[in-house]
Amino acid sequence: MSQAAERPYGDAGTTPAVPGPEDARAQQAGSGAGSGPPGMEKVLTRETTSSRAAAAVIAAVLVIGLCGYALLETAVRAVGQPPWLLDPQTAAERATALPAGVPPLLLGVTGAVLFAAGLFFFLNAVLPGRRARHVLADPRAGVVVDDEVIASALARRARLAANVTQEQVMVVVSRRQVLVNVRPTSGVPLRAADVQAAVQAELREMALSPMPEVRVNLASSGVIGA
Amino acid sequence: MNGTPRLLNRLLIGILGVKLLVIGGLLVLLATVPAVGRWWQGWSAGLWDGVRGLFDRTRFPGQTMSWLWIVMVVLLLLVIALMVAWLAQQGKGRANLLVAEDDAGEVPGYVRIGGGVAEQALRAALADRPDLAGATVATYEFRGEPALRIRVQPRQGVAPHTLAAEVSALVEALDAVVGKRTPVLIHIGSGARSRFGRAERVR
Fold first, then answer.
1. Which of these three, A70, A93, A126, is where a domain ends?
2. Domain-embedded: residue A19
3. Smallest CA–CA separation between A57 and chain B, in Å?
């Protein structure tokens, strides 16, 4: 929502689908059907989920850095030179004596930071990581559409149906729901059912999978002079 | 569409995550609970004694240094090489050829059609459309055969299904030209150009 409010036009927005663990696998399997020739399902599931490449790059760089430092100290030790920062043997001895020798606050904060980093990587590995995209039915090619594009198309349709300006409509598309917020012009009556019907017709034409539900919100206060 | 090893990514990230979680949790417990500190000192001292014994037993004959240090250097180098290999796997999978086949005609030889043919034909066909803020086409290798990835960025308010149908018609025209149905993925996305560019008002 906040994401959409920052936009200059304010009529398009997406919210990334919040993953529900129980239906994750079933939905991924189901979302591939209906677009493109057979064999495309694999591509479509890959396109609608995150590849975790960013986290993988961070992890690899982290491990390379750590191993590089350890390599330096070990190699220095192996050829019998004085250590650069910390001799591996001294490091191990300090680690065994741990609560002693380090201020508890520093130790606790370091632990908390490491814990948070671990949580980041762990959740990246475990969560389904669905992207804010829908699959569109097409006989020839596999088609994926960003939710933002769907939202702006629906906002245009809702704007025409409600006969208001672009700034008075905001649409949020999530995986299973489309939320249409309309602020009517003051003094001009507006029926939510009309907007709902128009948006639903557009959605039916799109034939998304999974098909989201439409909810229309009319603001109680109108806009003056729009 | 690209060849990023997703399962491997998740596996390795998960392993690193669990390790960091355990180390971080242990450090927090060491800082806060004294009983954990006592247990840790006893347990790790035993472990460290074992390791030191191992180092003593693996000395070079007649010298004070253990050859385990050299083994460690080799192992660390191996880990770094594996990490670099893992990095190189991310986002790979671009291909150059769209078709590479024996055409079974009278002239001996192979027919090869570069991916640039499809890429440039489609890009040129999509370039002049007023409802698009940008389009890119790339050839990828998917399961050993070439596939096309078409990414279009429509302006605000463009209906995605009509756009998809029109791009799909272009792809079918390309099929007729090339003589082979390549798998195609159409990604209708949004970027900075479609977000901040002017909206399409007339169609």
1. A126
2. yes
3. 6
Are A31 and A138 within one domain? yes
Domain end residue (candidates: A79, A100, A126):
A126
Does residue A167 lie in a domain region?
A: yes
- Amino acid type, B166: E
Mean pLDDT for A182-208 is 90
Question: Taking all residues of chain B, what is their mean pLDDT, rounded to a whole number?
Answer: 86
From residue A88, how far is each of A9, A61, A76, B50 by CA, in Å? 59, 22, 10, 16
CA distance to partner chain A, nearest, from residue B61 (Å): 15
Q: What is the extent of the structural domain holding A115?
A: 53-126
Q: Are residues A103 and A158 in the same domain?
A: no
- The answer on A197 and A92 residing in a single domain is no
In a domain, A80, yes or no: yes
The residues facing A25 across adjacent strands are none
ipTM at complex level:
0.82
Angle formed at CA A37 by CA A214 and CA A153, multiple of 5 degrees: 30
Residue-by-residue DSSP string for B47-61: HHHHHHHHHHHTBPT
User: For chain B, how many helices (H) and strands (E)?
Assistant: 6, 5
> What is the rounded distance in angstroms from the CA atom of residue A59 to the CA atom of residue A121?
8
**Cα separation, A191 vs B150, whole angstroms:** 40
Integer Cα distance of B160 and A7 in angstroms:
20
Give CA–CA dist A49/A7, Å, rounded: 25
Q: Residue A216 — pLDDT band, cuts 50, 70, 90?
A: very high
CATH architecture group of domain B97-196: 2-Layer Sandwich (3.30)
- For residue A72, which residues of chain B lie inside 8 Å, CB to CB? none
CB proximity under 8 Å: B 107-166 to A = 142-143, 147, 150, 154, 156-161, 164-165
